[in-house]
Amino acid sequence: MKFGESRRMTVRKKQPARRETRPNSSEGTPPSGYRMRRFLAPELLIAGVSEIVAIAARARVTVLLVGGLAMQHYGSDRLTGDLDFAARKVPKVLPMLGTLSFGGVQTSTACGVPVNFIVRGDDYADLYQEAILASPVVTELGVRVVLPEYLAAMKMAAGRDKDFLDLKFLLSQEGLVDAAKARVIVRKHLGPYAAREFDSLVDEAAWQKSRGR
């Protein structure tokens, strides 16, 4: 699948999902299929990271933190209700609760934190594997955290509205993303069209900074 085509992370459940949380009846009738997302406290997410890192170490699997907690590490106030790790394989001891459409499984920690274990099997597999090798361990989290330049490329590859909001946040942070390095990564793994779009986003971020936004 080429950059720019619609894609969505889908999970095919193997067991019933957690009970849905619905608004109070006084707030009106919720739309069909409504589900309120459960966001997790930072301390619970960190406990989940520690558990996954320990399991991965015993299985000799290198894991890379991506997703919402990685965004929080870089200063975003975006909430998240799960953990996202990229890896070459999934430790066998983890329960498989579902599969991810582009490669990997949905699992959970013993303390109840949902985890997406991403093992890409599509056009962006090389992007993720390169990011795993290039990204350093962050001492305070005890795990490799995706470098912002690779995270920017991953956000472009995902292509959802929330991913572009995350990307704009990354580019808005002074000194966080090396735009030249990120462009090389985007050009290599997503192609020339994506590189031109990335240039436009960098220009937009610079313009907004100049306007004090």
Please give a structural write-up.
This protein is an alpha+beta fold and 213 residues long. It has helices spanning 42-58, 67-73, 125-134, 148-158, 161-172, 179-190, 192-210; strands spanning 11-13, 63-66, 83-87, 98-100, 104-108, 114-118, 137-138, 143-145. The protein folds into 2 domains: 37-146, Beta Polymerase, domain 2 (2-Layer Sandwich), CATH 3.30.460; 147-213. The chain has 7 helices and 8 strands; from the N terminus they run βαβαββββαββαααα. The chain has an 8-stranded mixed beta sheet with strand order 1-4-5-6-3-2-8-7. The longest helix is centred in the last third of the chain and has 19 residues, at 192-210. 31% of the residues are buried. Residues 5-36 have low confidence and may be disordered.
Q: Tell me the number of helical segments per DSSP (H or I, 4 or more residues long).
A: 7
Note the run of SSEs as H and E.
EHEHEEEEHEEHHHH
The end-to-end span amounts to 35 Å
Helix content: 40-55%
CATH third-level topology of the largest domain? Beta Polymerase, domain 2
The number of domains is 2
Structural class: alpha+beta
Q: Note the beta-strand portion.
A: 5-15%
